[in-house]
Amino acid sequence: MSLSAKEKVIVKDFFAKVSSRSDEIGAEALARLIVVYPQTKSYFAHWKDLSPNGAPARKQGITVMGGLYEAVSKIDDMAGGLLTLSELHAFVLRVDPVNFKILSHCIMVVLSMLFAEEFTPQIHVAVDKFLALVALALSEKYR
Amino acid sequence: MVQWTDFERGTIQSVFEKMDYDDVGPAALSRCLVVYPWTQRYFGNFGNLYNAAAIQGNPMVAAHGKTVLRGLDRAVKNMDDIKATYAELSVLHSEKLHVDPDNFRLLADCLTIVVAARMGADFTADVQGAFQKFLAVVVSSLGRQYH
């Protein structure tokens, strides 16, 4: 499954449209990850504060969104463009790839909440595919 | 047996009480058919599913969406024995409809996205947690009788 030219435009346009609230999206998505899927906290045991609305969670959400916007800018070659991030996830963070799906779902729930009118099924499918491809690029170097 | 906290019980009742089944059902099913197009395999006789617009305007999809939500209501009213409530439906989906049970999860995800859109800020992380736990029990019960 790859993104068609039309879908790439949809993704770029949608992410541009929501960019002013990207911090909010990231923070909300991380909060939901921790609350709805408590097992994900296993990756954040080093945080002083594991609360969903705490500073570390918020900061992590912002970091994740930064990575996503980088992926949008490299949408034509995500595996190549996200090489550093891929190596980070493979050799340092070693996040089980199942969690990429979980976080993607949380991000989309937040997008749907904050942009109910705009997050139509057509945009949903393009974003879903995009997030899946980002996850794939991030797991490139796993084995 | 599934243990529900008071918060979870209250949340599920409240979310479904406020929900317009005739709006959410069709929206969730049509979204599922658009976002996960392979799910269309079960609706060969529904007519025009050629593109997102056709799917969203299809009256058979809308009708079936309502049917699904009304079916979900049975679990809302029987939270302490969802497994038994859905035993027959599980057999139906397995023996007669031959639906891959993974599809229940896909539809549940689309339902979550639609409810999030309808509820906006009221769909807090805790509400989402309760809602997804409820749907996970439903999904598991529907897949229970497969063999």
Automatic annotation (TrEMBL), chain A:
Question: Any signal peptide, and if so, which residues?
Answer: none
Q: Which residues form the Globin domain?
A: 2-143
Q: Which GO terms describe its cellular component?
A: blood microparticle; haptoglobin-hemoglobin complex; hemoglobin complex
Instruction: Report the record's Gene Ontology biological process terms.
Output: hydrogen peroxide catabolic process
Q: Which PROSITE patterns match?
A: GLOBIN
Keyword Metal-binding found: yes
**GO terms assigned for molecular function:** haptoglobin binding; heme binding; metal ion binding; organic acid binding; oxygen binding; oxygen carrier activity; peroxidase activity
Which keywords does UniProt give here? Heme, Iron, Metal-binding, Oxygen transport, Transport
Annotated InterPro entries = Globin, Globin-like_sf, Globin/Proto, Hemoglobin_a-typ, Hemoglobin_oxygen_transport
Q: Which family does it belong to?
A: Belongs to the globin family.
Q: Under what name is this protein listed?
A: Hemoglobin subunit alpha-2-like
* Natural source organism: Salvelinus namaycush
Q: What is the lineage of its organism?
A: Eukaryota, Metazoa, Chordata, Craniata, Vertebrata
From TrEMBL, chain B:
Spans traversing the lipid bilayer:
none
Keyword list, A-Z: Heme, Iron, Metal-binding, Oxygen transport, Transport
Q: Which GO terms describe its molecular function?
A: haptoglobin binding; heme binding; metal ion binding; organic acid binding; oxygen binding; oxygen carrier activity; peroxidase activity
The Gene Ontology biological process terms listed for this entry are: hydrogen peroxide catabolic process
Domain named Globin is located at 3-147
Quick check: keyword Heme in the entry?
Answer: yes
Where is it found, in Gene Ontology cellular component terms?
blood microparticle; haptoglobin-hemoglobin complex; hemoglobin complex
Family of this protein: Belongs to the globin family.
What PANTHER family does this protein's entry cite?
HEMOGLOBIN FAMILY MEMBER, HEMOGLOBIN SUBUNIT EPSILON
Protein name (record): Hemoglobin subunit beta-like
This protein's gene is called: LOC120036973
